[in-house]
Amino acid sequence: MNADSRQAPTTLDQWFDAGTLNLLRAAALAHAVAAGMPERRAADVMIAVHELAANVVRHGTGSGQLRTHIADGVLRCVVDDGDQATRTVGDAGRWHCQPGHGLWLVREVADQVTVVHWPGGSRVTVAFLLPDVGGPRV
Which of 30, 39, 75, 121 gives the lowest tally of CB atoms within 10 Å of its CB? Predict the structure, then answer.
């Protein structure tokens, strides 16, 4: 294996809804462990992904997408509340990031949290530093 293949980004792309949150949790945990995170820290990734996905199910469109990307020593998880084409205009499909236990917990376990809203949708990106990796961070 050459240096370029070791640094190639690793991704996970998974759709979810209320009936598949358990599968999403398992995939997020397995992905974080495969990225080299200790199990305890990988559980933080799983918790953050679950809380964000549960917000999408409860307060958003009811379904969404998780995409992860590993690069430069950081695991980034992006949670969108459904496909852009299926979003409604206005705030009907927007899940609100108001203070509560779920988003509070996400902010506690992640190294960085970014929230972006647009008419009818939201995207939250959480970043987790990977252990023992040099280079640029969050």
Answer: 39
Domain positions in the chain are 3-129
Token pair recorded at residue 50 = 């679950």
What is this structure's pTM? 0.78
3-state helix, strand, coil split of the chain in percent (to 5) is 40, 30, 30
Do 77 and 126 contact (CB within 8 A), yes or no?
yes
Q: Is 117 helix (H, G, I), strand (E, B) or coil?
A: strand
Token readout for 130 is 């990977």
What pLDDT sits at residue 117?
Answer: 85
Between CA 115 and CA 124, with CA 121 as vertex, the angle to 5 degrees is 25
CATH architecture, domain 3-129: 2-Layer Sandwich (3.30)
